[in-house]
TrEMBL record:
<feature type="transmembrane region" description="Helical">
    <location>
        <begin position="203"/>
        <end position="223"/>
    </location>
</feature>
<feature type="transmembrane region" description="Helical">
    <location>
        <begin position="51"/>
        <end position="76"/>
    </location>
</feature>
<feature type="transmembrane region" description="Helical">
    <location>
        <begin position="170"/>
        <end position="191"/>
    </location>
</feature>
<keyword id="KW-0812">Transmembrane</keyword>
<keyword id="KW-0472">Membrane</keyword>
<protein>
    <submittedName>
        <fullName>ABC transporter permease</fullName>
    </submittedName>
</protein>
<feature type="transmembrane region" description="Helical">
    <location>
        <begin position="143"/>
        <end position="163"/>
    </location>
</feature>
<keyword id="KW-1133">Transmembrane helix</keyword>
<feature type="transmembrane region" description="Helical">
    <location>
        <begin position="97"/>
        <end position="123"/>
    </location>
</feature>
<dbReference type="Pfam" id="PF12730">
    <property type="entry name" value="ABC2_membrane_4"/>
</dbReference>
<feature type="transmembrane region" description="Helical">
    <location>
        <begin position="20"/>
        <end position="39"/>
    </location>
</feature>
Amino acid sequence: MAKLVKLMALEWKKLKHKMVISEVVIYTLVIMFMPMIFIRTLPEFGQSYETVITLMMSIQMGFILFGASLINQVVIEEYKYKTMSLSYGYPISRRKLMLAKVLFIAAFVFVCTFVSCILSGAATFLLNQSFHFIDGQLSLSDIAAYFSRSLIQSIIITLASLIPFFIFGVWLRATIPAVLCAIFLMQFQNFGFLLDMDLHTDLVNIVLCLLGLGSVYLAIATVDTRIGEI
């Protein structure tokens, strides 16, 4: 476990810190104000705090795109610039190295998403005190529901963000397709409205989580094969 933590710390050191931090700040700031903008444009989303919570959880899906950005830096660029061969030269198994990359991306996305949920919730509440765009009164049950759903949604987004990891990260090593895949995933539930289809949210989330876990398994299982070669 200690080795994995050290490897994850090494992944952080290799990142382009200014670019990553700028991304996180931009994502968070945009997401903090989007609920108010949506509700002011489409008042039906502000009928109750329950509908607002559902809207805000959907908006947080934007962090799947941040996951694609991390996959690009942590995996694709290392293959592209041949620095992956240096990592494979360490006296550590390739599978453990790949697991460290997965855990690093997952931890980063989870923490950023959960913190964004909290900040977005606080910003929406404070803005509502001035602009009154949400009907009804905030209750303790609403706050408890928001925290629990934020935690669950952060896990779902974390796993969904790993879906491009194997195909576009380890196998094809393609940045643009990875980003396009992330955009599709973050908008997937909205396609149901466009196609007039009733997509069961819980079922969709389960499928996304399973696909993410499957992607991680394939990436680690095949890293010693031809797919994982430099």
